[in-house]
Task: inverse folding
């Protein structure tokens, strides 16, 4: 089974980050009962000094190069990934997409309605490449801007409602969709290093959101051991 991680800055990470992708790799290594592969067209971290995804300075030296693959980008959201997902799925032959997107869209590019439309385009593109692809989508998680910007917080809530509706509408037996749940204990003051990007605690909790969804719906792996 081939897993493709899709996300924005919280997924790609920066030099010195472990990333939730690393935590998820450890979980799969410990609990996945069969052959699997992490796939994707990219493998680097985003380097703020270079302004580009050129770093390979992961905090964990035991994170294999092959397991670092992803489709994530700093400043990229549903808007950017919708046209990329079809070719990425076709090339990597991905079976399961673990998707964490939306904050960057709402913060800079599109409102809740437009972002939800891009979710649907993303699903359509992924299914065109693999009609049996499975997807787990994470809602926009707590972030510091939502604490101080009430209109933005309301837009996040509107989008998360529309994301849940899109997942319910588009779910099918052939190509199932899941909505993961952000752990109730997620705290931006403890689980991030800047109010948005996950630190160690946040990395574990994001990995747990995906791991628990995979286990609960499809019995893939086990529940995450926080």
Result:
């Amino acid at each position: 089974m081939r897993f493709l991680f899709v996300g924005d800055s919280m997924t790609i990470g920066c030099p010195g980050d472990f990333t939730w992708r690393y935590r998820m790799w450890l979980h799969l290594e410990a609990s996945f009962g069969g052959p699997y592969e992490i796939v994707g067209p990219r493998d680097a971290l985003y380097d703020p000094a270079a302004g580009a995804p050129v770093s390979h300075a992961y905090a964990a030296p035991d994170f294999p190069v092959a397991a670092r693959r992803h489709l994530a980008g700093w400043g990229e959201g549903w808007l950017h990934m919708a046209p990329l997902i079809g070719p990425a799925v076709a090339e990597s032959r991905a079976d399961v997409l673990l998707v964490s997107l939306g904050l960057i869209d709402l913060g800079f590019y599109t409102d809740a309605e437009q972002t939800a439309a891009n979710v649907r385009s993303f699903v359509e593109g992924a299914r065109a490449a693999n009609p049996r692809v499975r997807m787990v989508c994470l809602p926009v998680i707590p972030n510091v801007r939502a604490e101080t910007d009430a209109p933005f917080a309301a837009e996040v809530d509107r989008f998360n409602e529309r994301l849940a509706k899109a997942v319910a509408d588009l779910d099918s037996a052939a190509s199932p969709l899941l909505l993961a749940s952000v752990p109730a204990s997620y705290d931006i003051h403890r689980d991030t290093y800047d109010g948005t990007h996950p630190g160690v605690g946040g990395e574990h909790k994001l990995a747990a959101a995906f791991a628990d969804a995979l286990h609960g719906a499809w019995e893939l792996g086990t529940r995450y051991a926080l």
Remarks:
- The chain has a mean pLDDT of 97.
- The chain has one domain: 2-218.
- The CA atoms of residues 116 and 162 lie 6 Å apart.
